[in-house]
């Protein structure tokens, strides 16, 4: 039970940090000359190794890390002095200050701000005065370290715990840490310079150094944003960050070029991953997508996994990835993911277009077959009749029917000829249309002398046959209605009318524009004919929808 409690507290970075500070405070109270300071600092260093955000606690420590730990322990045992303590506190201040930007919880930020205040006060008002032998400041620092700072440590101990601090994933920004370390070193060395060259007291030298550091930071703040035509350090620094090992613009140009060149999503993804693997800070990567999985390069212990919808990329770096580099990795993978999804949508649209073409071709052929079967049924009825003109009608209609059957079989064998519509002279087509329907009671109207203009015969056959067939079917439910077919010129307009009841408004609104459910089918024939007419620059419309006058018109828009 006791072991489990100890392990629980050791896995909590909050308690490790506080225990480390209490041990450090005890060692500073004893001073560097006390024989008890060595075990306290060794214990403090061990807790630091458990708390530190540089290596994950569950990973095996490498040889270089073991050498560093050993050198740090030897320096603490044999070279312990105020300079060593000052260097250690400065580095600890940089690590803590760099981690404060990671947390969003209020109590976590208060805890790390308190730690920064503690380390700064101990360093500037106790360690550095002992280092420079500033007697007056050492008296003030003694009161601070004995009575004030323990209260601050106690306040940090009783702060409410946050779940954010107990997370195993720890990050540290190297840039922030380095800047804080250099700033604090500048304050220490600047104070020493003022004390040595100006023969000033430590507090006066410290205040002068802090004032100059504040002026420098203010100047950087002014230069950070654009002023008076100057582009600003922010733009320069941003351009530097965007160049992740290679020029960012060049990499984007290669990525967009691969989007245009590669035919499908899988080949594009392989090309994009190969471009990403060219970065020198990557040792390898692996990817998983709906199309395939793969791997390039070598696997390392420093990995970053990025999920972009259906695409999962795992990048293996040669060294530990800092937050800035992780931000760039997410940005680059998002770009690859967006282009990959665009290629997938493009491929899906191509597949849908192919299926739609197959569907439209099949639908047209189905209606051709239906019309031919109806013609064959009519011819069968004629053949069974005893009229004298039956043989003559059969001789006239059978060659036309045979020709249409041949064309339909050819379309079934070679679907691509659907786009190559058969051409025929207008007068010849009109004669064939009248000949096919001469046994029907239809009134034909035409101008004198039809020209021999070339027209898409297959389209006109499909549209007009469907219109005539619908009118004849309507006559079966409304006996006695008149049906007329009229052709006009300049431009070519073919009108099919009947004197039956009007089409209901609910059906007429969707007719020719969508597949609809009617008493005799789904309106697929007229829908396909209207789409085909639009592709060939014709227009099929319902021009009149009144009782006694229901008219459709096929018009040439060319």
What does this structure look like?
Helices cover 62% and strands 11% of the residues. It folds into three domains: 223 residues, no CATH class; 109 residues, no CATH class; 135 residues, 2-Layer Sandwich (Heat Shock Protein 90), CATH 3.30.565.10. The protein is rod-shaped, with a radius of gyration of 44 Å. It is an alpha+beta fold and 558 residues long. The protein is built from 18 helices and eleven strands. A five-stranded mixed β-sheet has the order 6-8-9-11-10, covered by helices on one side.
Q: Give the spatial strand order of the biggest sheet.
A: 6-8-9-11-10
**DSSP strand content:** 5-15%
> Could you tell me the number of beta strands?
11
Order of helices and strands: HHHHHHHHHHHHEEEEHHEHEEHEEHHEE
Dominant shape: rod-shaped
Low-confidence stretches: 1-11, 165-169, 416-420
Mean pLDDT: 78
List the helices and strands and how they pair.
Elements: H1 2-10, H2 13-30, H3 37-51, H4 63-78, H5 82-99, H6 106-132, H7 135-157, H8 174-198, H9 202-224, H10 233-242, H11 248-261, H12 265-276, E1 282-288, E2 293-297, E3 302-308, E4 311-317, H13 323-384, H14 390-413, E5 423-425, H15 426-436, E6 443-445, E7 454-456, H16 457-477, E8 483-488, E9 493-498, H17 505-508, H18 524-535, E10 538-546, E11 549-556
Parallel strand pairs: 6-8
Antiparallel strand pairs: 1-2, 1-4, 3-4, 5-7, 8-9, 9-11, 10-11
Quick structural gist:
The chain contains 18 helices and eleven strands.
What features would you highlight for this structure?
rod-shaped, Heat Shock Protein 90, alpha+beta, single chain, four-stranded antiparallel sheet, disordered N terminus, five-stranded mixed sheet, 558 residues, 18 helices
């Amino acid at each position: 039970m006791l072991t489990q409690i100890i392990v629980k507290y050791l896995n909590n970075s909050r308690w490790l940090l506080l225990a480390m500070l209490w041990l450090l405070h005890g060692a500073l109270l004893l001073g560097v000359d006390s024989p008890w300071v060595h075990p306290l600092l060794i214990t403090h260093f061990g807790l630091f190794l458990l708390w530190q955000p540089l290596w994950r606690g569950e990973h095996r420590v490498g040889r270089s890390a073991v050498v560093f730990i050993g050198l740090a322990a030897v320096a603490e045992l044999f070279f312990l002095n105020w300079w060593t303590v000052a260097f250690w506190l400065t580095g600890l201040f940089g690590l803590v200050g760099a981690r404060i930007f990671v947390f969003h919880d209020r109590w976590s930020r208060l805890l790390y701000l308190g730690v920064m205040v503690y380390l700064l006060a101990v360093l500037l008002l106790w360690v550095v005065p002992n280092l420079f032998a500033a007697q007056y400041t050492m008296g003030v620092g003694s009161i601070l370290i004995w009575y004030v700072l323990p209260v601050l440590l106690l306040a940090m101990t009783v702060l409410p715990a946050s779940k954010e601090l107990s997370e195993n994933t720890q990050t540290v920004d190297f840039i922030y840490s380095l800047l804080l370390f250099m700033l604090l070193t500048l304050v220490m060395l600047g104070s020493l310079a003022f004390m040595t060259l100006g023969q000033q007291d430590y507090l006066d030298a410290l205040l002068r150094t802090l004032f100059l550091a504040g002026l420098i930071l203010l100047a950087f703040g002014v230069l950070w944003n654009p002023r008076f035509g100057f582009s600003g350090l922010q733009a320069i620094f941003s351009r530097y960050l965007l160049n992740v090992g290679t020029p960012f613009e060049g990499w984007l140009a290669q990525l967009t070029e691969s989007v245009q060149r590669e035919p499908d999503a899988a080949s594009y993804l392989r090309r994009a991953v190969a471009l990403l693997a060219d970065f020198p800070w990557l040792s390898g990567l692996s990817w998983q997508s709906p199309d395939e999985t793969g791997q390039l390069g070598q696997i390392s212990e420093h990995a970053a996994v990025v999920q972009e919808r259906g695409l999962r990329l795992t990048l293996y770096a040669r060294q530990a990835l800092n937050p800035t580099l992780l931000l760039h990795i997410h940005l680059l993978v998002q770009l690859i993911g967006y282009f990959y999804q665009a290629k997938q949508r493009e491929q899906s649209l191509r597949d849908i277009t192919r299926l739609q073409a197959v569907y439209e071709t099949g639908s047209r052929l189905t209606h051709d077959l239906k019309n031919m079967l109806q013609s064959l049924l009519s011819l069968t009825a004629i053949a069974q009749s005893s009229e004298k003109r039956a043989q003559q009608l059969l001789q006239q209609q059978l060659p036309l029917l045979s020709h249409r059957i041949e064309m339909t079989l050819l379309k079934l064998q070679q679907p691509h000829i659907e786009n190559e519509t058969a051409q025929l002279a207008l007068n010849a087509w009109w004669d064939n249309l009248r000949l096919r329907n001469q046994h029907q009671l239809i009134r034909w109207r035409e101008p004198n002398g039809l020209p021999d203009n070339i027209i898409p015969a297959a389209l006109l056959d499909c549209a007009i046959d469907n219109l005539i067939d619908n009118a004849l079917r309507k006559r079966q439910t409304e006996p006695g209605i008149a049906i007329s077919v009229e052709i006009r010129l300049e431009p070519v307009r073919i009108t099919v009318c009947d004197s039956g009841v009007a089409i209901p408004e609910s059906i007429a609104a969707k007719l020719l524009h969508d597949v609809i459910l009617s008493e005799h089918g789904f309106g697929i024939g007229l829908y396909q004919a209207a789409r085909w007419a639009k592709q060939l620059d014709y227009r099929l419309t319902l021009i009149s929808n009144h009782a006694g006058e229901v008219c459709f018109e096929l018009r040439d828009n060319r």
